[in-house]
Design goal:
Length: about 100
């Protein structure tokens, strides 16, 4: 949905007049963020989600007490921090 709203903002020259925060990221949303069309993205960390999921499953399989809910966090990405190495790795994961 953020793509559609971002497209409407871009097409109607509303960048800077309308604030938009999207969820997750793809090439189009990253471009909108870089171009100032959207204000921020909230992105997850799939590596951490997988790591914490396996760690919790292993603990549960051993009969250890585990938390009912595990917060794997979320990251607010803005144009100002999108080149930070940690954030850049979330936006451009190495898939090899």
């Amino acid at each position: 949905m953020a793509q559609g709203v971002g497209q409407a903002i871009a097409e109607n020259s509303l960048a800077g007049k309308v604030g938009l925060v999207g969820f997750d990221s793809d090439e189009k949303l990253i471009k909108f963020l870089n171009d100032g069309v959207i204000s921020a993205l909230v992105v997850q960390d799939p590596y951490r989600m997988g790591y914490d999921g396996i760690k919790t499953a292993l603990a549960a399989s051993k009969g250890e007490k585990v938390e009912a809910n595990v917060d794997t966090g979320a990251n607010l990405v803005t144009k100002a921090n999108m080149k930070d190495p940690k954030i850049d790795a979330l936006l451009n994961p190495k898939l090899d």
